Amino acid sequence: MEINTINIAIDTNKCTVCASCMHVCPNGIYAVHDKKIAINPLRTHLCIACGQCMAVCKSKAVQQSKLDYDTDFEELSPDSASGTFDNLIKTRRSVRSFKNIPVPEELLLEILNTVSYAPISFPPHKTEICIVQNYELLAKASGEMMKFYEKMPKLLANPIIRQIIKHKLTNRQFMVLQNHVMPIVTTKINNKTGENEDFILRNAPVLLLFHANTKAELIETDLHIALTYAMLGAHAAGLGTCVIDLVAPPVNKSPELKQLFKIPTENEVFSALIVGYPKVHYFRTIKRNFAFNFIGNT
């Protein structure tokens, strides 16, 4: 695995110590120390250049080597969260830090109504959604999921078990597990920032589990489209969301977690979405480039 070499710095002349960067960083790289924003050197290798910290920094004090405020970001106007579809797309971000405020059931029903308009491969709709609002249940479930991942480093260190796991996963899935999931899990197990750190469900007030019968046809595409509609519906309702891929594996492996979430034994969880009111405000959106080509008549 290649070691991440992203350089991160804080311009103390600009920093107001609002701590927004600390709240949004998915890997706990920032902290407040002696009334200043500090960078945890034990976690800088976990930086994935997602741009969250720079997007919420009003004074542009956060600096990192792979992103630039002028070329990689677009400033958001105060009213850009409403109106056109273009604005809706630009202002949606993955939110992992939430206010300690319950989400009204009517807003969750609005999200489900949005999902009902999602296109499907062929009827009937095979997507099923479990909505969890119970804080105690979520905390218990997150603890059980954490136990699942705490076992993984030791299992992967065993050559025989490692080959079994590798055989059960696709090559892409195994590479993600090895190069992205395990470094985060290992670092956070060994260097916790606090007892309440929940790096799986992020202390979100709501969890949506997208699941379906394992015998259903073409369900993966339908579920991904439904998930996208749920994210956009939640954002339009003033809520923040984030897809959490760490949820499905332990739930599908654990009869106890399936029972806790009332997932039928014949069903498989494909994805999960945490939902809540965003804790911080975003001042800019990140622009991500991708490869494309036109094939025309000339």
List keywords for this structure.
298 residues; two-stranded antiparallel sheet; Alpha-Beta Plaits; alpha+beta; NADH Oxidase; 4-stranded antiparallel beta sheet; single chain
Itemize the secondary structure elements and their pairings.
Layout: E1 8-10, H1 20-24, E2 30-33, E3 36-39, H2 52-56, E4 62-64, H3 69-72, E5 73-75, H4 85-91, H5 105-115, E6 128-132, H6 135-150, H7 152-157, H8 159-168, H9 171-190, E7 206-213, H10 219-236, E8 240-243, H11 248-253, H12 255-260, E9 267-276, E10 284-286
Antiparallel strand pairs: 1-4, 2-3, 5-10, 6-7, 7-9, 8-9
Helix pairs in contact: 5-10
Per DSSP, the total helix count is 12
CATH topology of the largest domain: NADH Oxidase
Tell me the distance between the termini.
Answer: 43 Å
CATH class of the largest domain: Alpha Beta
Strand content: 15-25%
Task: Provide a descriptive summary of the structure in words.
With 298 residues, the chain is of the alpha+beta class. The chain folds into 2 domains: 8-80, Alpha-Beta Plaits; 105-276, NADH Oxidase, CATH 3.40.109. Helix content is 38%, strand content 16%. It contains 12 helices and 10 strands. Strand 2 and strand 3 (36-39) form a beta hairpin. Helix 5 packs across helix 10 (219-236). The radius of gyration is 20 Å and the shape is globular. The mean pLDDT is 90.
